[in-house]
Amino acid sequence: MATLLVKHRVANFDKWKKVFDRLEGLREKHGFFAHSVHRDATDSNIVVIVNRVKDMAEAKNYGASQELRDAMAEAGVQGPPEISFLNDVEDLRV
What we know:
This protein is of the alpha+beta class. The protein contains 4 helices and 4 strands. It is about 35% helix and about 40% strand.
């Protein structure tokens, strides 16, 4: 298992979220099985998505897909996202 961390600025959170939700099937196709969405505490148009993925290679394929690029443009993503591919070490919930 791995984590794909994405941070970007959006023009309008509500518009972005509708497009994000619509891509759920595409993410599942690429091995995504969970995510959480966060908004910056001081700038609510900065969004951070923590994606849980089965396979790092498939996560990278999703990130490089034309479908994602088109959706990001439609959703109003401003500028290139900050992306981190992380190998999971521990996931502890208390």
